[in-house]
């Protein structure tokens, strides 16, 4: 008398996808610089050609560009606002912002995601917010690097 094991196809498929995803992920160590105030910064490339420094901010919901970075980005290409919305700033003030969609944001050599929603503010730092950071998850932040394990 033989007993045949029947494993549901979706269980096998889920296991196979998990294994192949883990194998294809590449971990990247991205160097961070630290300001005198303790904030952490990293370099990122927008649309494959604009390099900029970004404040690493897990409390910010969006990738945010200052006006200077946005101007550099739109020198050679036109971006259209996808929507306008209200944003609460760190000081509690609510301001009206325009949001755009970028095709590509790259951190390090191989960590690239897109499309990504960005907001534009006239002043301040470029901010790498949680909407982009989670696309590279899992991630680990240390005082001198962010380790992105979700790169393909």
TrEMBL record:
Lineage: Bacteria, Pseudomonadati, Pseudomonadota, Gammaproteobacteria, Alteromonadales
Protein name per the record: Aspartyl protease
InterPro entries the UniProt entry points to: Peptidase_aspartic_dom_sf (IPR021109), Retropepsin-like_bacterial (IPR034122)
Gene3D superfamilies attached to this UniProt entry: Acid Proteases
Keywords: Signal
Organism: Alteromonas macleodii (strain English Channel 673)
Matches recorded under SUPFAM superfamilies: Acid proteases (SSF50630)
Key word Signal present: yes
Signal peptide start-end: 1-25
